[in-house]
Amino acid sequence: MRSVVAKRVNDALNFLIHFFLTLTFVCFSNCKEFKNSNNENYQFQHLISIQFINDISFASDLQQRAKNQLGSLPNSPPGSEDDTEAKIKLGNKLFRDINLSANQIQACVTCHPIDGRSAGMDRQTTPRGTFGQLGKRNTPTIFNVGYNSVLFWDGRRNSLYDQAIDPFINPMEMSLSSESELIQKIQNDPSYSEYFANAFPSNPNINLHNVKLSISAFERSLVSKSKFDDFVLGNLLIFNRQELDGLNIFLDVGCTNCHSGYLLGGNHLSKLESVSLYNPNDFGKFEVTGDSNDRYVFKIPSLRNVTLTQPYFHDGSVTSLKETIGRMNEFKLNRRLTSSEIDLLIVFLKTLSDKTKSN
């Protein structure tokens, strides 16, 4: 109901904006006192009015294109219908618990910091595990992960439930010996009893199934809405001219060929065929499937929060977003971008950041 009301308010606001600007334009163009006036102030206002009308028209066209080609982030991810506040609280506790690692120094939040200005990843080239092991691939942001149907750089999981405990038993991450050790650690902590009782009142057992459900519920709660969503939903005045120009370039040059949908990527894999874009010692999806066709196939990352989550590429080898765009321009886009066009693209990409974070 609230979304319907919001849409009607936006539609009414847009109508009033167009009506007011059209009326202003007609007045400036046709009223005798303006036509015959030699007052420079009136002439200046006339030019400003025309420019404003042009900008609003440009914004309206871009908004419709962005809505059709990308869309806005839904309020909640699929599967969240059964996520209660109690499940989310339990998942949050599990996510932050350093005692669930092999030597009690690391938690999920270590590599996926979410508090303050952090945008769900550690901003390291590759992460380090509990014993200082150097990870193979760059940590992706965990924000909006509930909307993903492809998880991990090699696409080895397709649901949060299946992924939920992988980091705990991965020898390169939190290094527990088995799923059983994870459950035993939780069972040995009396503070968990109340959390499980609240989250699963009909079956409060501390078991693997309930752990997976709780972590998944918490991860689905990590939704980051952006300025871009406000624009797509109808706020034509929220973007400045540079942001509009950057969006126009993004839609024109083929960025949406890969970074599609309301996540602007995140749900497909692609083969990297350029030696400038990958570590040749990492074979991507091939390491999961053994299929030679999957060599150098990796997940296309979502561009949401991209200006907050450097370094880039699956090996974290590039720290500059401008260089990253330049490399992808050489590889995938329809035409070569100028330096100033890349700068405008970055201005637009900043509008994809969580509104509570800082670019």
Question: Overview of this structure, please?
Answer:
It comes from Leptospira levettii. Keywords: Heme, Iron, Metal-binding, Oxidoreductase, Periplasm, Peroxidase, Signal. InterPro entries: Cyt_c-like_dom, Cyt_c-like_dom_sf, Cytochrome_c_Peroxidase/MauG, Di-haem_cyt_c_peroxidsae, MauG/Cytc_peroxidase. Its main location: periplasm. The protein is an all-alpha fold and 359 residues long. Among the domains are: 2-69; 80-220, Cytochrome c-like domain (Cytochrome Bc1 Complex, Chain D, domain 2), CATH 1.10.760.10. The longest helix is centred in the first third of the chain and has 30 residues, at 40-69. Strands 1-2 form a two-stranded antiparallel sheet. It has helices spanning 2-30, 32-35, 40-69, 85-96, 108-111, 160-163, 166-169, 179-187, 192-199, 208-220, 227-232, 241-252, 286-289, 321-331, 339-349; strands spanning 269-271, 297-299. It has 15 helices and two strands.
